[in-house]
Amino acid sequence: MSIRLADVADRTGVSAATVSRVLNGRPGVAQATRTLVLGTVENLGGGPTPVRAARGAMVGVVAEDGGSADGSSMADHVLTALHRRGLLPVLSAQAHGAPRAEPASRTLLSHGASGLVFIGGDHADTAAGRDFFQALRKDDVPHVLVGGAAFPDRSARISQDEEWGIGKAVDQLSELGHARIGMICGASRSAASRRRREGFLSALRSLGVPASEAGTRIEHVHDSDGAGAHAADLLIRGGCTALVCDGDSLALGALRAARSRSLTVPDDLSLVVVGDSATARHVVPSLTAVSPPEEKMAEAAADALMLAVGGTPLTSLELFFQPDLIIRESTGPAPSF
Length: 337
Description:
6-stranded mixed sheet, alpha/beta, 12 strands
């Protein structure tokens, strides 16, 4: 069958030009990326691949989020992608505040897991210890980190391009005429939240907002609707007519703050949420969302783990996938005062 460069680029998160360089044997591409591209070509039906995991091999998936009612969480997509490759994934769901990933991982490995996929949790937490992941590397345990590592690492990493996604949201709001855009940012210990903050500040700089002012348009809070409501109230009082919210709870809080001020979304206040959940889709008004390409990220994670379990080192692999901006009811033209 014929395989398009665009198909391989879409699946792996690298550019079509990079895929072309790999397939033509040209230099300038990291070995881990080269290996993943070649493995993806084979998975799509285009030729031989490096050593791969045996069919039926058990692998562990350690996820802070164990799945969602509408079947659309990253964990669901990773499980499906691993199943399609003939592997046997076993999920260990880690709820917020549950024991760290290490005990679950040790249990999975003791029961024969030949590799691990981590979704959220410790590796994305700048305050969490690194010893366990260093031990995995030292012991050559195949593993893939999904969701952005909080520390320089030799593990294979699959992440959303957080800065690009926030920049796209800010640009859209600016095009709608919003001159004062604020952000309600999640916990500063989260690597993803830190990257979103940097993306927001970068986007404001590109719009000509002075650095001294840009910093006043961000409120850092813990993840709850009450904190989101308080932060939104402060930003609205500061003149913001549009807010980017780092997650569902913060967005729901912003909606509550708007209603308490008798403001209408989107006529008086526009909202964008990071993450395209069932809540974002079904709340009234439905929320414009920076939507992570979860299926693409899951496919790349499954390809990477399959190669790693089969003996192909991918320690220098880091792929970033650009999210989509899904326009819904919560954004509109800036109000005229």
